[in-house]
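Researcher: Please translate sequence to structure tokens.
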Amino acid sequence: MAKKNIIIFHVTDRGACSWVRFRFMAGLLETNVGGEVVPVISPYEVTEPEVLKRVAAIVVARPSVPLHGVLLEHYKARRAEFGYKVFADYDDLLCDVGGEKTIPDYNIFSLDPREIGKVMEKNCSGLDGVTVASPFLKRTLERRFGWGNILVVPNTVPRFAYGMAPRRAVAEDIRKPRVLYAGSTSHFKPGFVGDFEGPWVPWLRKAAAEGAVELHCFGYKAPFFLEGVPLALHEFVPAVAFPQAVAAIRPDIYLAPLKENDFNRCKSDLKLLEAAAVGAALLGSGFKDSPYKDAHPLSLVGNDTTPEQLSEIVERMCRKDNFNAILAHQRWYMDDGGRFTESNASVLRFLKTYMGDSVGCIS
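Model: Translation complete:
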């Protein structure tokens, strides 16, 4: 009997999501598990019977268009013959819930969530499992579709890509913190501050203008709400180079503003992981069920916070003892939860989810 040690990932882009969810892990498995697991990333369906005999699992990322359904049907039709499992994976909320439009208008990459919901329901019928990036997304999709086979595979970040040795402590108070916004442009659009609603824009503009912070962000031009204030712009880089680009900036504070809504509640804690990996302190939104709810309390900004209070929060977190406590908490969060891609907990969680007993040889 052929050894079933192949896992096939179908990802349709080379963006950040594909690297965080699959590409970094696939590279790790390819080089570090001694041939016990063979990861394959393919843009095309695999049809060769001798290969399919060795496949333990097939994962299709974000199957939200009809063509994904064709791919999934191809594999479901051969599942009984070859004995593999078929999964879909979602790292974001893409559809409507309860007939309501749940994707915010300021999210510039939004498509019609009602139509996507219909496609998702059809595509994911009869799968062995659906994996998601967060517990809130799991509960939301269960409520939307009634699926009983949803599993949480939390995001991880690769320690090696960020330089292996993040800053562990500072020796004195940080007088002028280097503040980085490394999020995508889907968090706002012209005329809509989006996830920067609340105290964020007034505080950033005042702090940057007065020289209280050294502001950095990625993009070809400043966000419209930061035009005219001093900031350093960094060109967008391919997703695989993003960790090194962030590490090179050496930020003190890592911005993660989010508007309170269920779309954002479904998000993962990825920015917290990135902050920890680079040795920066997260500064993020702390509403109920926020993806950053497990960050250090000093890192969280409430909905009713004023710009003046946000300035005080930043000043407080930049005191040596507080800053070091935040970094220590973030290191604990990464180690305790197995949130570095290379950790044993991360690898085994990933493989056991998709391959089950097939990975008993490396547990």
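Researcher: Any highlights?
Model: The first helix runs from residue 16 to 32.
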